[in-house]
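Milestone M4 deliverable, item 7.
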Amino acid sequence: MTKNSQPTNRSRVPQSERFMYFISSNWAEIDSAVATRWEVADHSHKRRDALSAKFAGKVLVIAATQPRVRANDTDYRYRPDTAFTHLTGWGSATVPGSVLVIDGRKDKCESTLYLMPTAGRDSDEFFANPAIGEFWVGPRPTLTQVSLQLGIETKDLTQLEADRASIGVVIDMEDPELIEAASTLRFVKDEYEIAQMREAVRITVDGFAEVARSIPRATKKARGERVVETAFYSVARQNGFELGYETIAASGPNACILHWTKNDGEVKAGDLILVDAGAELDSLYTADVTRTIPVNGKFSKEQLWVYNTVLEAADAAFAVVKPGIKFREVHNAAIEVIARRVAELGVIPVTAEEALEKENQHHRRYMVHGTSHHLGLDVHDCAQARREMYQDGILEEGMIFTIEPGLYFHQNDLNLPPEYRGIGVRIEDDVLVTESGCENLSAALPRTASDVENWFAEQIS
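Output delivered:
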């Protein structure tokens, strides 16, 4: 790819020598901060070594990807490929279209990062190219600056084609084995990643406080769920980079729709509102937290039964987490509680023990999703790992994942007593596996029903 291959609109660009001289001259140099080595550089170097070791003697090519078109000439906010981010540590500062090459043909692997620098003032790309021109995107870092920050040799992207031709056969991110290996590499987080996750959770906790404060305003709006949604978004954007995923702000019966992101419903007193949200940092690590809050500040009798059932399931899952168990055991602990409680309510036609048998699973009508997923650079991290490494994988110290049981009683479910219909509850926390158990990274948010009620009252007072 060359600079001239980027989009331009030549029909409106002056081409005379007089204009070119005028627009390219008499510019002062822009003062920029002195580039220093980033903390992540040492960690990402180790990650590249670890990945290269799995492909000894091979050359790996990992692209950051190009921006995705939203409509015509408008792009979505740029986010680089997850594997690229993990292996470079560049995060939200990544120059679109950059490519990482890891050469493992020698005893010690060597990495090169190819990127497109800002178009110089000696080219009409400076003002005419909206993809790389300084008029459009501002000054980009120089190759030297990026090399210092990330601890990687850098080259102009225009050299990549010739360099690849001299290398010969390479393995790129279309190769299933490389995709799987890059995903598996992210299971256990290093010190830098754990610190980033703590910060993402901290901002997310602040976002939930703003969510609580927005609920009284939301009850006065026809699309009150969007008042709640944007309250969290404002905190995420002001203190981080983006949302880790589309916020779910689901009030009343909408809380039973697992991926409700329309967020266009009313927020009514007497209902619960389920908010599933996470802030993403500039490093692109994201939190993923859910709380279910009574809109009027108090749980009804039926809401409390559902809430306490979910809390009991979450506590059961927390209790089993430790290094050495299978990942699926976390889900099994939670789902046993769900099966027992819905059997006690009389809404399944078998006992809890019978429901848990593989051929039955009646309780899954009320909790169809899993209890946990790995978390990190992706909200559903490590998703391309093999099943035996994921669901059947063994927990290790340094893993981070969610615990998020739920119970969803749809308003049109005739199996349910009428007073329970339309109640949906999920409680989700982010968990770090420690040497002997686990740490709840999102423990700063209340979990018990009484604590949620007290916390909500404090936020809106």
